[in-house]
């Protein structure tokens, strides 16, 4: 074994008799044990980031989970190569949380670590490096040594380099020590290969040089000298006016943006001279997205119903750990959260507010920022890795006491959470489907809160059945809020029977007469319209009118979605794309037509029906860029758009004054989705999107297009009768053994060879049948989609008794079975994917 500089280490002299069990970010079921060498003995503790060698080649960042004196029986432990920080990055509660997650969701703790740590904290042989744009080797307090200079020069040529590149440049194997040092000296930045290169925002600033900042007399001397140079004097005065260093010396460290001088029309050359003469100094910083912001003094005036709700929440949380806040759309749940958060922070606790990903770019974050300033961190998957590291370190250092974040924010290094809030708790996007850990962030957050002895508040206008069930059985507290804030009323609902309209020739480009007239009316009053269709693209598919041929993905068992804008057919599962053929490849007919409705097609139809209206579309395709979603919302909010067409993205948390009409294009598509939750989801989606209408003084109107207007669910949605809807659906769920009456685990078996996939899934299925717990075993069946990305898929569904330890027992035995199967030669390349609570 070599040390950091490629020199060989003498084993005996490094032995301490101490070992560390290390979590490494790879999918292996166990912790690995490494030797703690003498030179690192005093710098190591639980939760520290360390560098280890894994396998022949890989260098990885690991986290120490345990220190002990027992050498591993099965292998010779390798030494830990280096320690990355002088403090723990991960705390013991987090390690417990990770272990719980690995166990509950049947995955490896390394996979949890991988999801939990931003890649900027996972220096590995897969990382890449780039020059830190703020680094200036002439003025750096920590000069680089010879090897570091070499790396810097090479980087200046190449732009970015991998670990291996560095090995070649230096001609030694272990380079991480050098790179670590360069990171500490702020000479380089590390990023993950899979992500795009980090483009930090750099700002030029100036400040007083140390000499004058610390010595008032010296500065007065300068002013005397400058008395004959008024332009320079002016610049210096401006600086002192903006940065009163003698009142608050610490202000000087933050300096002043250089642009302030040019904006005040002060002489650029005088500024230059002051810098040249060593009175001011110029420096560059990477500016954070999270600019310093002082909270504004916002007084929150709760309405009477809000105040009563708050009181009841606090009362019930004395007894219960978790509470459901069931407040209709527009009732002002956010204001209640704010009060709860303020009180928790004042009591010295940390707070986490989980939001669905997309809601994080809306006004709610701005609203919270006003109240909490920069003690609030925002954690979002569209942020770059470095930005995420910033939030991570902010929580670690205590600078950030309150985090608003998407599902992965549950992994931040909290050590004293007092309150966790999950807003829109019914949202399916809290579930991570791929890759492992396949966790439900709401459920995990409740566990996290429990580990911290903290309270959890779940908020929704349309609670998930699980949470409502738990509230009704008394496991959770429950508070209802049944009035909209202020003057706002709930919208009025109307059904549009598209079959009748079709017969009477009133259906135009899929729009019923009622919907068309309502839109027209809104437009004439300068009001806004939302049109909801949960299907992106132009049309679900293209079909030949003569022979019925439908184009399918070459790699997946699904039809291709037609995207008119790009004249392409795309697979929404693997991204495969193909040009639209000019004639049917099966029969040669040229009558190929688009079938069904996607957002693109609706957008086009609207432009034809309402040529004067300004239309925009919001779906995955129009919001891929980092600020795409935000930009669209700003356009809509500022009134530059009259009609917004969108997928479920438009159902969440939008709060605009002028929306008076909401159209649901095809309710049947939501209702008849083949899933036990279809009804629940339809109730939620329609209620939520309807809730965007009439949120101020104007009453809103919701038009729902359907072929089956007689369905009872419509009445229940219109009357907000969640409870009766729930009771009916629950009777079915109980009868047919669905959650929340049972626990569901789905195991899918994937392989590129059909026969192998089938055989492996059968073997697994039979073995699972032998596990002695109360259960129902279904399958194995070809997956709902039988092939994705050239992998054939078979699925077994296990329904487990909720009582006793059936779940724990089953999961444990399942792990053993999978290990056994994977050890068999013929199944070695099979992938078994376990998904606990797969919905
Ligand atoms: N106490 C209050 N003082 C001032 N404004 C309030 C108050 N309560 C609510 N509002 C305003 O009423 C509107 C609706 O509130 P909010 O967005 O919090 O509702 P919500 O319950 O989260 O609704 P949804 O579930 O539809 O997102 C917002 O514009 C909010 O600023
Ligand atoms: Zn595909």
Automatic annotation (TrEMBL):
Binds 2 zinc ions per subunit. It catalyses: Couples ATP hydrolysis with the unwinding of duplex DNA by translocating in the 3'-5' direction; ATP + H2O = ADP + phosphate + H(+). Zn(2+) 2 binds at residues 553, 556, 571, 574. GO terms for molecular function: 3'-5' DNA helicase activity; ATP binding; DNA binding; hydrolase activity; zinc ion binding. It comes from the Bacteria. It holds the Pfam family Helicase_C. HAMAP family: PriA. Belongs to the helicase family. PriA subfamily. Component of the replication restart primosome. This is Replication restart protein PriA. It comes from Arthrospiribacter ruber.
């Amino acid at each position: 074994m070599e040390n950091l500089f490629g020199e060989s280490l003498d084993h005996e002299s490094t032995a301490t008799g101490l070992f560390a069990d290390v979590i490494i970010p790879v999918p292996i079921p166990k912790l690995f044990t490494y030797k703690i060498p003498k030179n690192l003995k005093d710098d190591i503790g639980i939760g520290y980031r360390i560098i280890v060698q894994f396998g022949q080649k890989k260098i990885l960042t690991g986290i120490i989970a345990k220190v002990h004196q027992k050498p591993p029986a099965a292998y010779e432990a390798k030494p830990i190569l280096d320690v990355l920080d002088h403090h723990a990055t991960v705390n013991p509660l987090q390690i417990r949380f990770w272990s719980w997650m690995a166990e509950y969701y049947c995955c490896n703790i390394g996979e949890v670590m991988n999801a939990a740590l931003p890649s900027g904290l996972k220096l590995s042989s897969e990382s890449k490096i780039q020059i830190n744009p703020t680094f200036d080797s002439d003025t750096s307090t920590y000069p680089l040594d010879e090897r570091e200079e070499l790396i810097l020069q090479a980087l200046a040529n190449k732009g970015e380099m991998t670990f291996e590149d560095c090995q070649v440049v230096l001609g030694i194997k272990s380079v991480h020590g050098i790179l670590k040092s360069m990171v500490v000296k702020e000479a380089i930045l590390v990023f993950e290969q899979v992500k795009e290169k980090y483009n930090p925002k750099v700002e030029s600033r100036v400040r007083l040089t140390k000499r004058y900042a610390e010595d008032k007399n010296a500065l007065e001397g300068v002013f005397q000298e400058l008395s004959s140079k008024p332009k320079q004097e002016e610049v210096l005065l401006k600086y002192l006016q903006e940065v009163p260093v003698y009142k608050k010396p610490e202000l000087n460290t933050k300096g002043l943006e250089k642009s302030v001088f040019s904006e005040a029309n002060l002489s650029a050359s005088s500024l230059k001279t002051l810098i040249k003469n060593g009175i001011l100094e110029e420096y560059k910083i990477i500016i954070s997205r999270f600019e310093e912001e002082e909270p504004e003094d916002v007084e929150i005036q709760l309405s009477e119903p809000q105040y009563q709700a708050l009181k009841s929440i606090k009362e019930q949380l004395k007894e219960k750990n978790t509470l459901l806040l069931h407040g209709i759309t527009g009732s002002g749940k956010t204001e209640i959260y704010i009060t709860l958060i303020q009180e928790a922070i004042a009591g010295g606790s940390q707070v986490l507010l989980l939001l669905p990903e997309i809601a994080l770019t809306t006004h709610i974050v701005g609203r919270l920022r006003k109240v909490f300033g920069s003690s609030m961190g925002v954690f979002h998957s569209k942020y770059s890795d470095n930005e995420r590291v910033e939030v991570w370190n902010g929580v670690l250092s205590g600078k950030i006491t309150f985090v608003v974040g998407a599902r992965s924010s549950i992994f931040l290094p909290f050590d004293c959470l007092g309150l966790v809030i999950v807003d829109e708790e019914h949202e399916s996007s809290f579930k991570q489907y791929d890759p492992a850990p396949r966790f439900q962030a709401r459920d995990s957050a409740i566990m996290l809160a429990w580990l911290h002895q903290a309270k959890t508040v779940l908020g929704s206008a349309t609670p998930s059945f699980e949470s409502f069930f738990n509230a009704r059985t008394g496991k959770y507290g429950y508070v209802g809020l049944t009035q909209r804030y202020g003057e706002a009323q709930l919208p009025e609902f109307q059904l549009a029977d598209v079959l009748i309209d079709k017969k009477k020739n009133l259906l135009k480009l899929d729009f019923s007469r009622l919907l068309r007239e309502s839109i027209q009316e809104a437009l004439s009053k300068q009001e806004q319209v939302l049109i909801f269709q949960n299907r992106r693209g132009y049309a679900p598919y293209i079909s030949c009118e003569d022979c019925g041929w439908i184009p399918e993905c070459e790699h997946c068992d699904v039809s291709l979605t037609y995207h008119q804008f790009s004249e392409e057919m795309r697979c929404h599962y693997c991204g495969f794309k193909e040009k639209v053929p000019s004639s049917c490849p099966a029969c040669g007919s040229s009558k190929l037509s688009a079938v069904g409705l996607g957002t693109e097609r609706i957008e086009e139809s609207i432009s034809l029906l309402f040529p004067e209206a300004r239309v925009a579309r919001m779906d995955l395709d129009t919001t891929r860029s980092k600020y795409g979603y935000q930009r669209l919302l700003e356009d809509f909010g500022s009134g530059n758009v009259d009609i917004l067409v969108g997928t479920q993205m438009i159902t969440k948390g939008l709060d605009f004054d002028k929306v008076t009409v909401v159209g649901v294009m095809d309710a049947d598509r939501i209702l008849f989705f083949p899933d036990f939750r279809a009804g629940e989801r339809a109730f939620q989606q329609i209620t939520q999107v309807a809730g965007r209408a009439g949120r101020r003084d104007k009453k809103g109107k919701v038009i729902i297009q359907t072929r089956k207007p007689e369905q009872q669910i419509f009445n229940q949605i219109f009357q907000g009768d969640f409870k009766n809807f729930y009771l009916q659906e629950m009777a079915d769920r109980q009868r047919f053994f669905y959650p929340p009456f049972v626990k569901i685990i789905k195991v899918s078996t994937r392989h590129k060879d059909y026969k192998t996939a089938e055989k492996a899934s059968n073997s697994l299925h039979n073995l699972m049948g032998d596990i002695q717990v109360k259960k129902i075993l279904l399958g194995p069946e070809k997956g709902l989609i039988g092939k994705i990305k050239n992998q054939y898929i078979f699925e077994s569904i296990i329904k487990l008794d909720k009582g006793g330890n059936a779940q724990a027992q089953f999961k444990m035995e399942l792990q053993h079975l999978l290990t056994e199967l994977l050890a068999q030669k013929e199944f070695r390349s099979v992938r078994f994917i376990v998904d606990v609570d797969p919905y």
